[in-house]
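Ticket #4471: structure export looks truncated?
Reporter: QA, pipeline team
Priority: medium

Steps to reproduce: submit the single chain below to the structure queue and open the exported record.
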Amino acid sequence: MTESHHDVLIIGGGAAGLALALEIADHRPVTLLQPSPDARGASRWAQGGIAAVLAPSDDVEAHVADTLVAGDGLCDEAAVRFTVDQGPAAIEWLLSLGVPFTPDPDPNAGYPYHLTQEGGHGARRIIHADDATGRAVIETLESHVGAHPDIRLRHDLSAIELIADTAGHCRGARCLDEAGNLHALMARDTVLATGGASGLYRHTTSPHPASGEGMMMAAELGAELMNLEFQQFHPTCLYDPEGAPFLISEAVRGEGGYLLGGDGQRFMPDIDPRAELAPRDIVARAIDGEMQRSGMDHVWLDIRHLGEEAIRHHFPTIHAHCASRGLDIARSPIPVVPAAHYSCGGVSTDLTGATTVPRLYAIGEVACTGLHGANRMASNSLLECLAFARGCARRLAEETAESGALLVERTPGTRPVSRELIAELREAMRGVMSAKVAIVRHDAGLDEAAGTLAGLSERLAPHLAEAAPDADAASLWHALRLARLTVACARARRESRGLHHNPDCPLHADATPTPSRIHLNALQTP
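Actual output as written to the record:
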């Protein structure tokens, strides 16, 4: 095993990791792990945009209020205000870097860039780059990261666990290269920007979803996890059983798209006065209910009434992608289905990204800041990446002390883990999570999921005892334990709130709910 020493180590190359690297690199040298183009995380696939108070007719209090409503009583208002307050400055920073946001051609517009509206927002405050905002942001950030002399970008290493010392501080990460060789990257400060846990489920909106690996690496060092039961399902993923996942942006509904049931009629106006622009938890449950009522595998999202010119103008990426699959969305409605999209829970942090483990930080979807509460409002996620990357950078610029404790040693085994076993167990995990711990949960299903996941862990554990370092095996082990902790949080919440809907306890249990907090020691062996 080779050993190298680093100042700030950032694990994850999506929007949060890239933004942090740029913000801190003028003060401290950075090593950024982005193992492959697929490791850009969910940020690259974000279509809708970034929520921020930009129009003269909008205001911070309105954005805060909308976020609190969407979070269904579980948001941390301080985190909400911290994030919303930084929105305009974060957008100005991206503009200064050259992100090609879509201009507003109306000379009378109050803001020079086009703003759209999405579910839960009471105003047009979503700035976007056509319908491929994530890609535009990531590519712009990557170009600046690649040019910065004090950022070392590593594509050849994948982190499999964090390094602890005997004082309980994080001291870096153990990583594997493409040949399977182990590397210890020692660091003064380590930041997780590894994404969420949508990969625990079978159907997701991302082709390469994370499975909570970063969350569990932090938990192994004793970090507190929070609100794991709140997994968001995006209401509208393209339904194509034979094709790769593809998200149909919420902006499609924001610009006037209608959801149609099996009878060809709209169903959202009868469920919520906000209709198709209700928060995502409400729309996803409504679609799930309509699918069960009709017996269909999907519903329809119809934008034909907008006209082909408007569709091509606002949604060129979606139009082209659907056309590549034989679907002309200007003439036919889009078949859509909910899919796992965003983890509102994660590693508990403060407003600087600090976790409960000294020298360990978490930003982006891997973190639980309190912003989203029980349900993330559309386009607040990229805003959170930017706001907390900047807050974390300010904290890291002030850090000086370093732990002098001894490292906790680890002796790896030498035996490989069967590829077939890993694939079998991962598919079984995703199957039970999708069937029992998805949009609607029941007590009996959660109990069944707990038993099944424990059994899967028991099957894998003996193989890990003597296993050689293995990225796939480590990822599965992290995922299985996080799935079990997610089920434990869901079983413990005896109410329905936001993204956690259990008909066996359908009402809010308390007017002042508390977050769910859990540690790895909540699991019995294995």
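Status: closed, not a bug. The export was complete when the record was re-opened. Leaving a note from the reviewer for reference: The two ends are 27 Å apart (CA to CA).
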